């Protein structure tokens, strides 16, 4: 390989057919005289602009597009050399760092010698060692192209905002399960908003047996094993549900507050009593109607109960996870859009309560397709306010444009699976921790189950990894009509 | 000059052409490295087929230039008069002469291996400069023996009639047609072994000097041309078979780089770009070798 050009932080490197380098590979450009080296990542592979190639191609097709047949008598065997030159490629590389005295700096301001520099592939284990990516709490994400393992440090997910995105069936949920189980393994509390019931079997192996995490997975299915009594609910949590999920107007909310306080003073906080009081409350008819319709929405959700035996204390689930870690899977499968919002408002409200009262240290929240249940204002809350409470969110989506731009800008880690669509790539490339060229060029060619890992977990060295398999019962499979026909 | 009208004869006729090219791939302290390649193309049953020979790489020095040339000539042409007639060859002309030698060999091969066909040469049927007269005579003779007729097309000519280039002479006639020239003579030692015509074979108004073996009858010459017009593609008035031979033997920049790579690997040579003296001396005012 030969250094050809440097423009800004882009290097162009000439590579010959016997030197295989692919998108995502790292190269070390060493200038021994300067005692420095550049670490550059291949973001595109192009044909080198070899003079005369066009003529070469044209003369093989002069007969009306049909290949002219013939024989070549080439006693010196020059033809392989011609092919060698013709197939030379130009590697477009992004400079990621400078190595000087085994220390890394993000600088790309110096110019290595074009004639004297040596260029070689940088094995990933060496890069990981140089960048000190592995830590005390290792999570092995999977294997890289050079058969080494990519192991990140769980502490780099701590206090961070993460995004897992890619088109359908590329392995997003698989990676989130991997991260979740590892976090739980490190005694972390994880809350999952499980839209399709994919995470309910996290504690069960592929062949149906219990795995090591079985006792740490707590599945809460609203309306079944997850119901709440009004007494358990704080007024501001319920008001949050009424205002944000059920869009109760301000005036009606003020009346509801009065009703609630009156019931609480009488220790009569039940659904039945609430319905009765709303019916008989002395207020404007419109307000009563508004309150009544929201009351029935709460009743119809099946999430609230007056039966104290049925009621689940979310705190109990948190308590179970407190010492040894655990995942609380909120199964939102088969819930309507409105009910989902009610449940999410409730769970988030309670988590914030737990965190503000320091009953819970911090929690990792995994939110799949969050735009389907997260209200507008929560997006900003999550990246600003809630982070300070200790909610560290990982968004998982196949529609990157449903996540607001400021979320991308503030994301600390992005796990990017394949995207073909320009628009999707444009959206993801707005992330602050990565350059648009890298995202566009590498993500487009990622095979299924391969992910481009970006951000703090890889110390800003984008790394392509094949996500390792985990022995967990698969639940999110698409139901097929033709499945058993062949 | 009276035009001779040509009526295309579509009767299946095999035709073949050959061409060679040479290129300097570098200079050494004692001489130069050159490459020679030849190609012969033939059209049969409406299909083109080719044989390409080379590239052959030579290191030519003042010391070995004659040895290389005459060794090759001696090996492929039984000529007793070669060395005595030409004496020592110029180093700079050597690449062209080696290419001509290969071309004559290809022409000789085509002339003997084909029968009842048309053999198209690139250039003229002039002997005496690069080619000994006997050598060319032998090639034409063997072509006649195999019932082939040789048609030699020159892309450029300096021959003039009344001060005007022969290819610039126009007549009020729709192509394809020939113009027969007469009274053209060359200075010794150059010898013409063919009669010279101007061929305008397509409507695109391109004219070429055409040499046809003198030993053929007028009728046979015209018939050969009519078969050519009826059988080959004549884009811009130039036979496609001959064009292909030229295209296939010409070196591209990519091939030159590949050959430089080959000699660097094979002989351990280090390639250094020679400074461009024009640029060096005159800066932006120097045209440089690349423009020459």
Overall structural class of chain B, as computed from helix and strand content, comes to alpha+beta
Q: Would you tell me which CATH topology of chain B applies?
A: archaeoglobus fulgidus dsm 4304 fold
Work out the strand percent of chain A: 15-25%
CATH architecture of the largest domain in chain A: 3-Layer(aba) Sandwich
CATH structural class of chain B: Alpha Beta
CATH architecture of chain B: 2-Layer Sandwich
Helicity level of chain A: 25-40%
CATH homologous superfamily title of the largest domain in chain A? P-loop containing nucleotide triphosphate hydrolases
Number of strands of chain A: 21
In terms of per-residue confidence, which ranges of chain B show pLDDT below 50 for 5 or more consecutive residues? none
The number of domains of chain A: 3
Quote the average pLDDT of chain B. 85
Would you give an account of this structure?
The complex is a heterodimer of chains A (486) and B (292). By secondary structure, chain A is of the alpha/beta class. Chain A has 3 domains: 121 residues, no CATH class; 234 residues, 3-Layer(aba) Sandwich (Rossmann fold), CATH 3.40.50; 67 residues. Chain A is built from 15 helices and 21 strands. Chain A has an 11-stranded mixed β-sheet with strand order 10-9-21-20-19-11-18-17-12-16-13. In chain A, strands 1, 2, 3, 4, 6, 7 and 8 form a 7-stranded antiparallel β-sheet that branches. In chain A, strands 14-15 form a two-stranded parallel ribbon. The longest helix of chain A has 20 residues. The mean pLDDT of chain A is 86. Chain B has 292 residues and is an alpha+beta fold. Chain B has a single domain, classed as archaeoglobus fulgidus dsm 4304 fold, CATH 3.30.2170. Chain B is built from 8 helices and 13 strands. In chain B, a hairpin with a 2-residue loop joins strand 8 and strand 9. In chain B, helix 1 packs parallel to helix 3 and helix 3 packs parallel to helix 4. Chain B is globular, with a radius of gyration of 21 Å. The chains are: A alpha/beta (486), B alpha+beta (292). At the A-B interface, helix 1, strand 5 and helix 2 of A face strand 4, helix 6 and helix 7 of B. Strand 5 of chain A pairs parallel with strand 4 of chain B, so a sheet runs across the interface.
